[in-house]
Design goal:
With 575 residues, the chain is mainly β. It is built from 7 helices and 32 strands. 50% of the residues are buried. Bound molecules: CU-O-CU linkage (C2O).
Amino acid sequence: MKAYNLCHKPRCNGLSLGLLIVFDFLSCFAYAETLYHEFVVEATPQKRLCRTRSVITVNGQFPGPTLEARDGDTLVIKVINSARYNVSIHWHGIHQKGTPWADGPEYVTQCPIQPGASYTYRFTIEDQEGTLWWHAHSRWLRATVYGALIIYPKPGSSYPFSMPNLEIPILLGEWWNRDPLDVLRQAIFTGAGPNVSDAYTINGQPGDLYRCSRKGTVKFFVNFGDLVLLRIINAALNQQLFFTITNHKLTVVGADAAYNKPFTASVIILGPGQTTNVLLSADQTPRRYYMAARAYTSAQNVPFDNTTTTAILEYIAAPCSVQKGIPLRPTLPRLPAYNDTTTVTAFSRQLKSPTRVNVPTEIDESLFFTVGLGFVNCIPGPQCQGPNNTRFAASINNVSFVLPRKASLLQAYYQNIPGVFTTDFPAVPPVTFDYTGNVSRALWQPVFGTKLYQLEFSSRVQIVLQDTAILAAEDHPMHLHGYDFYVVGQGFGNFDPGRDTANFNLIDPPQRNTIDVPVGGWAVIRFVADNPGVWLMHCHIDAHLTWGLAMSFLVEDGVGESQLIMPPPEDFPPC
Ligand code: C2O
């Protein structure tokens, strides 16, 4: 793998008369590059929480390799499946303009790569910079198959904030002592909620607060005075997480590969799928500090993993201080209570785009989507273990999404394969009800189907994402493939167009690819459908995705050649 020439580093920022520096400066305007990587998906033994189990990894690494690129670069990643499961890889947050076949969700844009087979993903990064990530998009394989995808500014440009001396990717994850696919299998069999995880992890390690874990605790070393850019990614399968560092303020400068108006926070919150870039000044007494993450959980009476993962931020000067009597053991930061929705709301209200942005004001497609759980009645028995003789389900507008099996949606669309999907996904829920009130049980049962919502090229879309209180209201991190969107409004209760539309932020709303729909509330997003393809939208809590909390958009071709879906690559995996 080639060492990356970080041309965004300070030498690009100032002009100098020194010949060498002028040369360096010019080389920063080098053309965009094509970066080649090989990802071997394979089983490797990993020891956590006192036991060793076989884990599906990429190149034997857990978390997987960090991809680094600059805006404008093309990434070519050959994925070789040496594991015994079908797999596909998604490049979370990459727009994939013109390359919908490289998006990755299995049975949506491709059939999975079968054991022994390979597939090469090829895509160009266009007008995106910041922190994204990649992960398996096959059942629950992303529990261990994930890594950071870092996009630096284009050659010759730099961050809209002071240049950090150090950058650290922080991947928050979730660990099960059992094989996550067995946990999934059991949940699918019983119809009950899946077992919660046994640990959270920071860069693959649970940290000091778990059994047999202290030796592996991740340490990050800083010098006093460093300005550090932390690229935090919530790669957990099923859990929103709070993250904080003892004694340090965090300046939030970006989320989901978009910059924002900087603001400081002592705690940040990330739903699964979301990323947050923060600046940290290493200006505290040189010693060791904990960083820690633990659950934010909004649904009442639903079991969750109540443990805390930690890593250590260590000032390189700390050991002498230790000799002078400063304790070796860092102190734990204070984290909000697991149900502290007030902190979550205050945090998300502060996120705003850095300047005025181009939000669509006229809307062609005004959609209202209820998002939430559902239940299917069943005959009591081992396969009927959900609450009160039901099996869990989940839906958008009462449709519980079912993945096809014989072809991917994109292929079925492109090659006119009949019988794979229908385009009658409803624009509004089948009945109007008090979504966040006491929902009658008669409204708990979804229908199952592979329904797409068809959008004309370039239509301006607004979606109200309305949480439902079916069983329990719950915060849902909703992710849209193929696009970023603006979050023009958020609130609690039922969305009321008369009252709430007037309060939309059409000036500087944040740009994201994953939005946490507030518990018992709503979020409104807008985007322009200028990227033809089939794009999944779903809750990034994999338990909910498994139950069908998803739908897909089918975005039609435009007129120009750059607005058409091109044929699939030759090595495109068959079903
Ligand atoms: Cu990060 Cu459809 O996923």
